[in-house]
Structures are given as structure tokens and as C-alpha cells.
Amino acid sequence: MTYTLLLALAASAPPTGKAASPPLEMTDHTADVFSLAFSPDGKLLASASKDKTVRLTDAETGDPVRVLKGNTADVLRVTFSPDGKRVASGGADGHVRVWDPASGEQQLAFKAHGNWVCGVAYSPDGKWIATASADKTAAVWNAETGEKRTMYRGHASEVWVVAFAPDGKTVASAGKDKSIRLWDTATGDDVKSLAGHEGEVFTVAFKDANTLVSCSGDKSVRVWDVTKGETTSRLTGHTGAVYTVALAGGKLYTSSEDKTARVWDLAAGKEVAVLPNHKNGVYAIAATTDGKRVATGGKDRLVRLFPSQQ
User: Has residue 6 got a pLDDT over 80?
Assistant: First the structure.
């Protein structure tokens, strides 16, 4: 079934309040899908898997484009550079690998940590790569050479995720110790700690310079005022751990152990859609910048590509 036909079916379907459009399904991965990322132009979808591969998929048709080779262990996180000319991944072998998505050629590989690299993020200017690791540290590296710029120490346990603030001056990290820490990108100084989640924190994302969104094993999503260090709202509805939050097109997207992915109106603080269930927990969700395409992936090895949820 083509993507165009799916859109036509979705448009003709009667409104049901929370019904979602039928997705395309990609079955190329042979193990759990841990992470998803769309290219900045929305044309490619990258997926990272326990099967040791990063796969690129045409985001409109669902057709496979290429497999990015070189990983020697589970691939835990994948991201595009801001200009879309590089794809970076972090893996269970402690390495960061960077490819040219156009050719599939590996451009850079370096040993970043002595344990899993669980989080990878590009700075807004594309010059730096931040990493989070099960070795309880986070770090920032030169995106061209792999040379270490700064190491962040302070978490009491595994660090699952990192994210740059929109101005690139602050790095947020979070993990198993339930805390979110804000660091000075250049100096490594611990600027602030955000506390409130009752379970480990799996993903954080900046909405803007003063607003951070996080999700947790406590089944909730929190929105934070970074300046005040306070929670401004708490979103509930998932019945299992919430693994990923993504922001795009004025909406918030979440994925959960409860087998669902959900769409939220962040301003109103309410759920607006539930995407069709996966067969098992949903580790990853991503959306194009304009929110016109959404992808999910998880323990059932499937990657699903949805038409617009706007």
C-alpha cells in the first residue's frame, strides 16, 4: 500500500477523537529499535537498532535507502547534524560513529566512553557532539576530529541522554539517578540540577532557551522552567515508563513501555492523539520539524511511519 493511498484513507476516515492515520511499516531491523531521527529537511529517517545497524529510510515512501556500516555492537542513539550532511550514532561499544548519509561513507569513529554511549546530540552550529554514557559521565567532542572538549561528572549513575540548549551554551544531561543536570558547555561547570521525577529520566528536549521537557520511568512527562528550576506542568496518561519525548510542529510526541505513542498539545497540557499500538514497548518516537511525519519504533523490531498528526 502506497503512502499516498494511506493519506487518502486517513482523510476519508470518520473522526473518532483519538484515532490515528494508518502507518507504513518497515520490517528491515532484526532486533529492538532504540532510536529514530529525521533529517532536517524531513526526507530521510534514520533508525538505530540492537541488530548493530543504522538504517536510512525514505521518509515519504518507506523504501530503504542504505545501511550505515561499521558498528560492532548495539546502536543506542542516532541523530542528524543540523545541516543534514552527517549522521552520528552512539553504541554499546563506547564509540561514536559519523557517516555521510548521501554516500554511506563513515567519516569519523572515536572511542568516547568506557561503557555504552547512550546519548548523542549535535550542537546547534554543528561543531560539537555531546555524549551520555553508562559510565556516569557526559562529554562534548569536536564533531570533525573527535577530540574531547569537556567532560561532565556529577551523576550518581548511568547517564541516558544529552541535549544542547538552542544557543549551544548549555548542555542538559539526565539518567538513572532521576536528576536532570545543566552544564556550561565550555567549562563543564555544573550550573543547575532539576529534581522532581520519581523514576529514571530517559529523554530531555529543549523547547526553547528557558523550557525543557523530560520523560521518565515514573510514567510522566514534565515541563520545566529552566531559569527557575521548577516544573511548570506534568503530563500523565501513559501507563508505563515514558522513553522518548520529541518536539515538532507545535506538538509534543511521546513513546512508552505501555505499547503506545501519543501526541500532546503542549500549550494546553492535554493529549490529542494516540497512535496505533505496537506489539510491545515503544522505545523511540521522532517527528519532522514541521510535524507532518511521525515515526515510532520499539521492542517489536518495527519502524512505523505515520502521515501528519496535525
Answer: no
